[in-house]
Model the fold of this input.
Amino acid sequence: MAEQFLCSNLSAGENGRLYFAGQDTQELARRYGTPLYLMDEQRIRERCRTYVQAVKTAFGGRGRVLFAAKAAAFRRMLAIMAEEGMCADLVSPGEIWTAARAGFPLERAWFHSSNKSDEDIAFAMEHGVGAIVVDSTEELFAIDRIAAERRVQQPILLRLTPGIDPHTFEAVATGKVDSKFGFGIETGLAEEITRTALSLCHVSLIGFHCHVGSEVFDSDVFLRSAEIMLRFIAMVKERYGYEAGILDLGGGYGVRYLSDQPDIDIAANIMEVGAYITRRCAELGIAQPEVAFEPGRSIVADAGLTLYTVGMVKRIPDIVNYVSVDGGMTDNIRYALYQAPYTVLAAGKLSEPWDLRCTVVGRCCESGDIIQPDVALPASIRRGDLLAVCTTGAYNYSMASNYNRVPRPPIVMLNEGESYVAVRRESLDDLLALDE
Ligand SMILES: *Cc1c(COP(=O)(O)O)cnc(C)c1O
Done:
């Protein structure tokens, strides 16, 4: 069994029970109830250290790692990021406020988002974010105007679209020419906005950003985007005499949701990107910019596990078997949203044969409320059994909703044999908190 586990923080106990971060999932479910998000704190820290160390080695101190907070934004998480020396990519006043209340040093945060209102921009400036990543012309002028009113010069990066298809599925591909994000390099918009940015008095252009997409497994995606971005930087230097100080390559490294997916060696990959950038900068005659990465998923995904209790098993002979759980699209919308794959384990029955093909569904009033179709579970699975869905640390809690007025599960952190609540379970009264 062990070699089939997706991540080293999963193991099987003698009792056939699933252990996560060394702790018995059955015990955790009893103690905290289900549905339950578990997060392995040591795994999160280990991933941060892998990135920070790799970037340090590859770019000799001229690099930074920003945690894309949208993957998992809550106070404790931002506090861990601060402790690990990470920077942060924040996309809304809500995330900025969460980081501020976590004691995260906001000068180490950049403010992204594909559509920032004047209020958002003012809020970010007020809280002293290190830089704003500009996504549109309207936004650039708004930042310049608001900075003028505040009598400051706001550091900015421009989000460019390098025109790369990262061979990933459509809904998470963001760097192609027809993308809603950023300024296209091929279309000439990137050059035009650079010229405009350089002409404005209250913004200071510190570099360029791109993010080609999520769940990238091809090691050459970052090389291809770096190549296009470096050529753009060289062109801008030649035509306008401006040399970008920062190149942000975005996030997107994939993680294993299924055991047949590859396990990317992120450190090796970053070293390869580093060597490539050094060589190409020399060839292009530009100074090597500081290089930034913005991982979200690959920092937190496999540090997460969701536990559910089975409610019913419905067998429709020769058609399908349904196993329904006490959560669903409210705590994990990713299958419903883009058919995301997940590994489902019968957490109390690891030693039984898994001979029932079934579709694991949630409790909501939607046929599309599916956690995962066509998984194998033991034929003995029944009401009261525990199910674990692996690799739920990224984009599960942060996309959670109260559809059907289902309270959101708590996040319990596991650390060196101990557990503690980082986000408490929503109560029925919490659901009414905003009703006048
Ligand atoms: C979503 C996003 C990220 C993080 O992507 P992951 O796939 O979670 O690593 C980084 N940067 C930007 C701009 C994003 O939109």
Observations:
- The chain is about 30% helix and 25% strand.
- The chain has a mean pLDDT of 95.
- Residues 68, 70-71, 89, 112, 211, 214, 250-252, 294-298, 394 surround pyridoxal-5'-phosphate (CB under 6 Å).
